[in-house]
């Protein structure tokens, strides 16, 4: 696909010979009115391409914006997670799975860091669940954010999005992804760690993080999808409910911004 910026709109061109955009368009038409999902304004097509006109997100990608701020606290991370969980809970209540939640697909619509301007974008992998058992089989993922059940190739459901939210939360709090321990890690090494569900909440980045935040991370990054919280349950977790009382001190990972940017390059 190709995209262009036109003032207040984003213009996507999707080559029909490369990808069928029908489901993506249908999902955006039905659900993009949610405040934290990118807005779809219009769709056009010809014999070669599909053209999507979407809301432009001027604030940029989640991680890039956080690094530009030079100050990001646990309270601000919870405010972002609240909006993301709200949007994913809404999609899941309508049997829609996004399947590609990662920092580059989480953007700010405004140039400020207002969490209300958070938008989930790129529904190219999104799927409406229709199977009787509610399971999907096609492996669609980005290595650092893929849920272990997808790698097992035995079917997966909307809980894969919850896992990705867990990786995003881990990332916002520590500046690293849980399963990439070195910039030289190969995709194979990362996927092996994902499959084993092994990660650590120790280290310098986690010293000042609250136990409630760590508890939520553990409940999202559970290798058994049936034991994860649902997106709806995230909204009533104490860390989210009491976000206004969370610490506002600068998170430790800002002490090594180069390491953070390498992790997501």
TrEMBL record:
PANTHER family: SERINE/THREONINE-PROTEIN KINASE (PTHR24347). Coiled coil: none annotated. GO terms for molecular function: ATP binding; protein kinase activity. InterPro entries: Kinase-like_dom_sf, Prot_kinase_dom, Ser/Thr_kinase_AS. The keyword Signal applies. Residues 1-240 form the Protein kinase domain. Gene3D superfamilies: Phosphorylase Kinase, domain 1, Transferase(Phosphotransferase) domain 1. Keywords: Signal. This is Protein kinase domain-containing protein. Residues 1-22 form the signal peptide. SUPFAM superfamilies: Protein kinase-like (PK-like).
